[in-house]
Amino acid sequence: MIADKILTNFSQIFCPIDNGQPLKGAEMDQADVIENGFIAIKDGKILKVAAGEPETSLIGSHTKIVDYSGKLASPGLIDCHTHLVYGGSRENEFAKKLNGVSYLDILKEGGGILSTVRSTRSASFENLYDKSKRLLDQMIIHGVTTVEAKSGYGLNWETEKRQLEVVKELNHNHPIDLVSTFMAAHAVPPEFDGDGDAFIEMIIAEMLPQVKEENLAEFCDIFCETGVFTAKQSFRLLEAAKELGFKLRIHADEIDSIGGVDVAAELKSVSAEHLMAATDEGIKKMSESGVIGNLLPGTTFSLMKDTYAPAKKMLEAGMAITLSTDSNPGSCPTSNIQFIMQLGCFKMYLTPVQVFNAVTINAAYSVGLGDTIGSFKEGKLADIAIWDAPNVDYPLYFFATNLVQDVYKHGELVSKNHQIL
Ligand code: NIG
Ligand code: FE
What we know:
CATH topology of the largest domain: TIM Barrel
Enzyme class: hydrolase
Mean pLDDT: 97
Number of strands: 17
CATH superfamily of the largest domain: Metal-dependent hydrolases
Number of helices: 15
Bound molecules: N-(iminomethyl)-L-glutamic acid, fe (iii) ion
GO molecular function, one term: imidazolonepropionase activity
InterPro entries: Amidohydro-rel, HutI, Metal-dep_hydrolase_composite, Metal_Hydrolase
Pathway: Amino-acid degradation; L-histidine degradation into L-glutamate; N-formimidoyl-L-glutamate from L-histidine: step 3/3
């Protein structure tokens, strides 16, 4: 078959092993790393990836050939946990943080998430759209081609809906593909005066059915944490969401281990997120029930803690893990997934191959898109990050610099030389 486009002469191409499911435990050590190879693209999809020169049967009079001598290619990166859409920012809390006031204490005083709720409620659709678009523009130049985005800064229907509609509109208009998660259960809003049970019941009775009816999200998530929502409340909400057909995620063991992992295992949540405080018993449960551990080391870094999630233990226990930014205005204000990948190495001692698998193939399965993205299997979408790096190790070792040079989405060049086109 004749290719539309062939990207040639890569010094390395990182090809995750794609067996139709996330890579678990020791499988995450494996990848096909092709030396001196090419990527042939047809109709926005992968036609062939192989070593050497492309054969003449792939090349027609209209085939565009682009030379990428000395560069590394990987599948487009997938940021599978972000709080993308919000009003305002929280640099005013930074000094408090530096003076030792904890994240949960700032929240207790009405700051933190609740401060962003106030800014988001008063922001217009256009304002939220522009702000989120700017974040996506930054993400794409760092090599990201798919993003999971959560609501959760409205905590009332009007604003939660506005956030979800912003995600829907961006999914139409922006080259990045978005996967939407409904997360009204992010904090108890002031109107409920600390009554988490009543708020959860309101979400179940009034919001969940509307999110479903208007097809505004595929996943449902909740913040299971001391002083936020209990494991019992999390179970109640996620069970109701599951009955309505939502796929599940849960913020669990971020700061304290209060049972969120058990909820994830029991309800077969696709993933449990954060897991900084995960216990050995929790890890065993997640491994047995096939829950993906989504690790967010940028949050540990930004919360100024040294309790990074025990990634190695999770791999030893046979879990599948992913890494993502948690991009949000409070606990992890960043759009740079490369820095998160580097923290995966520097702070969790993952290898470059494990890290690349975490943000490609495993992240694809964690957002429910394992059949179309995350690897270079023939027929998958040609979402490609091209790195100004000669091999897989280099972008993890050379840190805090954007090393993604070009990005292809559905076979089209969407970012060139660090500039969005
Ligand atoms: O994943 N944990 C809850 N939510 C976010 C933080 C949101 C915020 O601080 O605004 C998180 O860390
Ligand atoms: Fe989060």
